[in-house]
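Supplementary Text 2. Reproducibility record for the structural model of the 128-residue chain.

All settings were left at their defaults, and a single model was retained for analysis rather than an ensemble. We include the record here because the model underlies the residue-level annotations in Supplementary Table 4.
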Amino acid sequence: MAGLKRRKQDLTRGEEEVMQVLWELGKGTVNDIIGRMPDPKPKYTTVATFIRILENKEFVRHETVGKGFVYYPAVAKEEYARTVVGNMLASYFDGSMSNMVSFFSRQEDISARELDEIMDIVEKARKP
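Retained model, structure tokens:
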């Protein structure tokens, strides 16, 4: 998928939880997905409904195996993350990466180690 359209990229919390599991699994049945979810486990019909919605949004595809379906992501996790972060930048930080980094660097729960890692990433990005 060459880029996520606005209407397709918005996922509910439940849909995103299912996608996180499917990204981790690579592919699986509804029962495989439920097996990787935290307790209390959702009902089969709930996960199946999320899968159907995700297929309609073109996040998930399936293949027929025997009498059942095996589902797999149609959108890479990185592609979705890039879109979500881009929307967050636009909505909360006036499209400015430096505003976002500044915001997160002022948070009390960021460690010195994490700040060092961020600086390393920035330095590597600067090198041609």
